[in-house]
Structure to design on (259 residues):
């Protein structure tokens, strides 16, 4: 099976300014100098983490999806990240998974952040998304989902290879971000990527980034720190397969269903 090349963007997001954020993220994407299979952006990457959905929401066939389609086609890569979407009178913190041919899938954030009142504005998702892309199984989730290991749980019958979280995770809870990313990688025996933002938002919340890529042992492949950057790394299929064969912990897991 092939390796997978993954790129991710850690950026400062301009508050409630979709056009400026698309332009700035596009600039970072242009810095990717090698062919890549997957480009990962933060949570609510056009607006910052906002509860002002009535003013900011886009329809599905809005300018951000069009931009993602153009970007995916240009780079021959999936582009993913979450945006505020309005559909049938409801608002969603929706992760879009956009392929180079223009087709797409989506995942609505399951765990809404009650401390910020997200549950009063957005409708939670009910189904996890598992994507097959260039021979890899990928499970994309959103920010607060990181705190809930059952929702992230890998399956011994149909395991994913890469677990990823797009986030606006503030500095005040930095230790939890770092610790839980490592825990999710270890318990699920999967490459794990967390993509955060940096800077100060319109609610005076500070973000220190700490985007990271970990292997199935929980060892860091990339630690970003707090700078704006684009990072690209290749994930080796042979490393994942060999480790799971040597340490088949997924086979010993309990069977259960999420209701």
């Amino acid at each position: 099976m092939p390796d997978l090349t993954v790129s991710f963007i850690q950026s400062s997001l301009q508050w409630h300014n979709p056009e400026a954020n698309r332009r700035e993220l596009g600039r970072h994407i242009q810095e990717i100098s090698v062919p890549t299979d997957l480009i990962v952006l933060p949570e609510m990457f056009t607006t910052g983490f906002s509860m002002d959905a009535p003013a900011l929401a886009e329809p599905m066939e809005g300018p951000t999806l069009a931009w993602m389609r153009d970007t995916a086609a240009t780079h021959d890569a999936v582009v993913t990240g979450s945006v505020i979407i309005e559909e049938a009178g409801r608002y969603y913190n929706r992760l879009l998974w956009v392929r180079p041919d223009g087709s797409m899938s989506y995942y609505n954030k399951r765990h809404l952040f009650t401390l910020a009142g997200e549950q009063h504005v957005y409708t939670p998702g009910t189904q996890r998304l598992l994507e097959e892309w260039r021979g890899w199984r990928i499970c994309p989730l959103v920010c607060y989902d990181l705190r809930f290991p059952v929702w992230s749980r890998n399956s011994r019958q149909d395991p994913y290879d890469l677990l990823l979280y797009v986030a606006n995770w503030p500095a005040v809870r930095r230790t939890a971000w770092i610790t839980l990313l490592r825990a999710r990688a270890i318990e699920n025996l999967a490459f794990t990527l967390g993509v955060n933002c940096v800077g100060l938002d319109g609610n005076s919340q500070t973000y220190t980034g700490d985007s990271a890529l970990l292997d199935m042992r929980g060892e860091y492949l990339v630690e970003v720190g707090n700078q704006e950057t684009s990072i690209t790394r290749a994930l080796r299929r042979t490393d994942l397969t060999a480790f799971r064969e040597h340490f088949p912990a997924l086979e010993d897991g309990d069977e259960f269903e999420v209701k």
About this structure: The chain has one domain: 4-252.
